[in-house]
Design a protein that fits this description.
Blueprint lengths: L22 H12 L9 H9 L2 E5 L4 E3 L7 E7 L1 E6 L8 E6 L4 E2 L1 H6 L6 E5 L4 E7 H8 L3 H10 L2 E2 L6 E2 L2 H11 L14 H14 L9 H12 L3 H10 L9 H7 L2 H4 L8 H7 L9 H23 L9 H12 L11
Antiparallel strand pairs: 1-8, 2-7, 3-6, 3-8, 4-5, 4-7, 9-10
């Protein structure tokens, strides 16, 4: 092919604010960012900085921008030309074209933001050159994410230093104390607090999400990204995907979902042969889901699990359950925040 993956551009492009962008170019990039599911979690200041630091790259037909399995260190917006997206739908399978993208599409954000490996390959197709706008993850993490407000909050609670770089970092206790303080609805109690065993148990899993590099500490850019993800109205989907994608390959298989939604976690056994599972994971249940597909699946599961529970307690198959059984359903669903069913239809 005519080019390589993300890293091939690092020796010829230094990310910095590019030549003065025209109002039309800024509007084009702003629309591409605002329509993107993951990038919408950024606030207005972060989105403006992201656009400011994007640089144009011209590519030839056949050039490869991303390769499946590589480290995702760039995000792109396609301005001109076409690119083809190819994926391995099943482990060990061949890459197959799944989409052709044209002007206005943004891509590469999943691995770029969530620190996963690429779950797809992208190459320029057609006879004409392509033009993309690019920003590297290093620039994104160091210059886009840490706004003055985020930096001030981080520096207020971070208490340790990285021994190699001297960089200020948060310990698990620092991070949990920040959450415990700023998630308390009572303003009188929004002051530095001691992390209790109860709060550590309740909020501890969030540290594992913020510590994307699994270094045992949270850095400023990690903290800024976590705050962006948690501010998203659909933040639960962001976190569930990160929890399920343990090997950080940017995809989630049914086995990983089963670990997450186990009987121990839910309080009952899910019917994994249901039509919903087959629709997303395929008849052999061996398909792997990327972020957007997984969030759709998990959203549907929030209706599927209450339905399964209701049908299990509807012993006479007449669309009703007893008050005692309904209380048990509510108790089970309350453990993971699902909405109880009102009545079988």
């Amino acid at each position: 092919d005519g080019g390589g993956g993300d890293d091939d551009y690092d020796d010829v492009i230094v990310d910095k604010p590019s030549m003065q962008k025209t109002p039309e170019q800024r509007q084009f990039l702003a629309e591409a960012v605002s329509y993107n599911r993951l990038l919408k979690v950024l606030d207005a200041e972060q989105q403006a900085a992201l656009i400011e630091h994007m640089v144009p790259v011209t590519l030839r037909p056949g050039d490869v921008l991303m390769r499946h399995g590589e480290r995702g260190d760039s995000f792109y917006v396609l301005e001109k030309g076409q690119v083809q997206v190819s994926r391995r739908l099943r482990p060990g399978g061949k890459e197959r074209p799944v989409a052709t993208l044209s002007r206005g599409y943004a891509f590469g954000e999943q691995a770029f933001m969530l620190n996963t490996r690429r779950s797809a390959s992208v190459a320029v197709v057609g006879d004409e050159p392509a033009r993309v706008w690019r920003v590297s993850s290093q620039v994104f993490r160091k210059l886009v994410l840490p706004t003055p407000r985020v930096r001030q909050l981080f520096e207020r609670y971070a208490s340790a230093y990285d021994m190699r770089s001297g960089e200020l970092v948060m310990t698990p206790d620092d991070f949990l104390r920040t959450l415990e303080t700023h998630t308390n609805p009572n303003p009188e109690h929004q002051e530095a607090r001691t992390v209790t065993p109860e709060s550590a148990s309740r909020l501890g899993y969030l540290f594992g999400i913020a510590d994307l590099n699994r270094q045992g500490v949270v850095r400023l850019d990690d903290f800024a990204l976590f705050l962006a993800l948690v501010s998203d109205p659909d933040s639960e989907y962001n976190f569930v995907f990160l929890l399920a994608d343990q090997d950080r390959d940017g995809q989630v298989g049914l086995d990983e979902v089963k670990l997450l939604l186990s009987k121990r976690a839910l309080g009952f056994d899910v019917d994994w042969d249901c039509n919903l599972v087959k629709r997303f994971f395929g008849p052999n249940r061996d398909r792997r889901l990327r972020f957007n597909d997984f969030t759709m699946f998990f959203s549907n599961m929030q209706e599927e699990i209450p339905r399964q529970l209701f049908m299990r307690y509807d012993r006479e198959n007449n669309g009703y359950v007893s008050g005692k059984d309904f209380a048990e359903i509510i108790n089970i669903l309350g453990s993971w925040g699902a909405t109880p069913p009102r009545r079988a239809r």
